[in-house]
Structures are given as C-alpha cells and as structure tokens.
Amino acid sequence: MSTFQAPKGTYDLIPPDSATYLAVREAIAAPLRNSGYGYIETPGFENVELFARGVGESTDIVTKEMYAFETKGGDRLALRPEGTASVLRAALEANLHKTGNLPVKLWYSGSYYRYERPQKGRYRHFSQVGAEAIGAEDPALDAELIILADQAYRSLGLRNFRILLNSLGDKECRPVYREALQTFLRGLDLDEETLRRAEINPLRVLDDKRRDVQQQLAGAPLLRDYLCDACKAYHEEVRELVTAAGVVFEDDPKLVRGLDYYTRTTFEFVHDGLGSQSAVGGGGRYDGLSEMIGGPALPSVGWALGVDRTVLALEAEGVELRLPASTSVFAVPLGEEARRVLFGKVTELRKLGVAADFSYGAKGLKGAMKSANRSGARYTIVAGERDLAEGVVQLKDMESGEQTAVGVNEIVAELESRLG
After folding, report:
1. Is the pLDDT higher at 214 or at 110?
2. Is the pLDDT at 258 greater than 70, yes or no?
3. Residue 272 neighbours by CB under 8 Å, 6+ apart
4. How far apart (Å, rounded) are the C-alpha atoms in residues 365 and 359?
5. What is the dihedral of CA 206, 207, 212, 216, to 10 degrees?
6. How far apart are CA 85 and CA 91, in angstroms?
7. Beta sheet of 379-383, edge-to-edge order
8. Contact, 384 vs 405, CB < 8 A?
C-alpha cells in the first residue's frame, strides 16, 4: 500500500476503465473535427483576473470554487475552472480573429479544477471536451453546436438525455428584465449573501439549487416575457434550425447556467439517470466576453461536455462501448533465440499498425500463457528452439483454441491477413 493517495475529490484513470474515457473523448471530438473545428490546448492555469472578469465575480466558481494561488514572483494565478475564457484569451493573443476567416472554430479537451463538495458526478478535478465558435453572430452557428453535441451523444449510444433550451436576451432587453427580477427578489425572505448576489447578478439567484429558495422563486418574472423583437427572432430561428435537423429539445424559461458571460442562446444537456448531478454538458452564446477580457467585439458561442458525467450516463443506461482490443497478438518466446526472433516479429507487426505485445521477463510457458489470456489478444505466437529449428512458430487462435504451425517468415503476413 502506498503512503500517498489521490487528493480528496479527484480520481485516477487506469486501465481498463481509462479506455472508456478515451473512447468518449474521441466520440465527442469526431463531429467537431468533421465540421471545421481545429484543436487548441491552453495552460492548466491562467491569470486570476481572466476568470474573475469572464466567468463573473459573483459566481460560485470565482467566489468559492476556484483554486487561486500566488507564485514566488508575485503573480496571482488560478487553476482553470472552465475552458471558454482560456480559449478566447488564446485566440485573441494569437490574433486568430484577424485572419479574415470568421468564425474561428476551435475544440479542446482537458482537465479542470473546482473546489466543490465531492460526490458522485461532481469532482474537484474533472475532464471536459469543449467547442467554441468565435467571431460570428448567426443562429445557424448556435444550432450547429447543439446538433453536433446531440450527434456525439447518440454516436455513443446514449438515448435518455434531454436538451434544455432558453434565451437570456442581450444588452438591450436584459436590463429591463434585470430590474423587474431585482424588484421581485427584494420582496423575498432571502439570506444576506443571496440578496447581495441579487444586486450584482440577479439571474444567478434563479440558478440557486436550495429548495426553500426555489419555492420562493415560483412566481419570478421570466426572461422570455421581456425579450426584445431581435432576440425573439434570433431564438426562434435557432429553434427552427435545431428542429429541422431532427433534434428534440425542451424549452426551459428558467434555464440560466452558472456563468455570467452568457447572452441569448443558452442550453444544457441533462440525464435523469444521474440523480442530483444531472447536467452532462451545456453552453450558449457569449457575445460580450471578448470585451470583458480586453478584446474587440467578437460575438461567440460554445459548449463543454463532461467526460466523467457522460461515462456515468452510459453506465446508467447500461451502454457498453465497443472498444478496440488493446492487444491483438501476444508473443510467447521459449528460449533466448526465440526471444530475439519473436521480438523482431512483434516490432514488424507494430509498424504495420497491429496491436502486439510480448512476454517480458523470464516466464515459463504456463505463466506466459496466463499473460496472453489477460491481454485479451486474439492470437498468440509461441516459439521454442525446436520450432525455430524447423523454421516455424506456433500460432494459436485464443477464441477457438486451434493451433497451427506457420513459417517464421510468413507469420507477419498471416496475422495481417487474419486480422484484416
């Protein structure tokens, strides 16, 4: 037993479970790569102010959950709690918006960190795949991202998820709603911290998960009743495009999301098999975020899907992914000459793209065959001194148990043919 354990609220990805996480990441990324999104990777930590300005100083993420620290040089940094602000910062720094090809379409995958109360589906270290389309205000772009996320989930075999959709308005109509909501909230029996939040960003109060608060919010004014004509038309076009693509969604007038930068389109993917942590992903439009972090006006939209929660959703539905075999061929040498010859054959197979492994260490035949069984290999190559003297190796089909002698010089071509 090691002296050390993973920090509270974190986890290690180890085989064979890690293969499922990799498959989920690949499935989410595949539709993005096919739709013009290029990969971007940003540092695991950023300037604290990037998140304070972008995510919002009144959010739980910034006030309670962000891992912030001061470096030896006096810089105030934070482990990234989300991906959008970092990606937009990187795009602005690299002047990607000046290439003349807008929107800039980017996707990313990585780990994120929030100091939260650990529970199933909520970790202090978690994994996401995200996508951002920067520099264009177009309902088709919002619809595209919703459709691509739906496509990704369905390609994994998920069926019991729901898409919630709402509009948060823009700088023209949201202030009117904000005032109406604040007037309503001031008349409720709320604690001092919640009232303070209501003065800074009243929409965040709508996202409060406490039952007593939600009961008081039953009669709260809804933003959809305050949308200006432009926002109504924009939202209706998003709805029509998503519907035309055959993607089913639910209108949720109370959907806010937990980040301050969202405008107009906002959406969330939820899975009812996950209990209280039902959100598996979400996103929306953030037209003003670029200006918040010192950039030019760049209307943008994006989402992030949780890899951890997607895996939990697959488990809840009993979906088992078809994962490629980690090993297709396992080589068992008996003797020094056989070790040299079979190691060469394993190297050849790997160069051809065949997943091959080798019995390392001085194992006897019985121990080596146990390793071959554990590897999940379809075929095992066994060779001893007598086999090599005859110019052959023994090829065993691990499914049927059939064993045949194959020429040493023919074994690679034979395996390549059998494995297709």
Report:
1. 110
2. no
3. 160, 162, 278
4. 10
5. 10
6. 10
7. 356-358, 329-333, 379-383, 392-397, 403-407
8. no
Helix (H, G, I), strand (E, B) or coil at 242: helix
DSSP code string of 10-79: -----TTHHHHHHHHHHHHHHHHHTTTPEE----SEEEHHHHHHHT-TTSHIIIII--EEE-TTS-EEEE
Distance CA 106, CA 297 (A): 18
Instruction: Count the alpha carbons within 13 Å of 388 in the hemisphere toward its beta carbon.
Output: 14
CA distance 177 to 191: 22
In angstroms, what CA-CA distances link 74 with 47, 71, 77, 365?
12, 5, 9, 60
Task: Give the whole-angstrom CA distance, residue 65 versus residue 100.
Answer: 38
Task: Give Cβ neighbours of residue 410 (< 8 Å, ≥ 6 apart).
Answer: none
pLDDT classification of 354: cutoffs 50, 70, 90 = very high
Quick one: tokens of 334? Answer: 């008996």
Signed CA dihedral, 122, 125, 131, 133: sign only: positive
Q: Which amino acid is at 119?
A: Q
* Closest C-alpha to 273, from 303, 311, 304, 323: 311
**What phi and psi values does residue 67 have, to the nearest 5 degrees?**
-85, 100
Taking the C-alpha atoms of residue 407 and residue 14, their distance in angstroms, rounded to an integer, is 38
Confidence of residue 41 (pLDDT cuts 50, 70, 90): very high
CB 263 within 8 A of CB 301: no
Cβ-contact 368, 339 below 8 angstroms: no
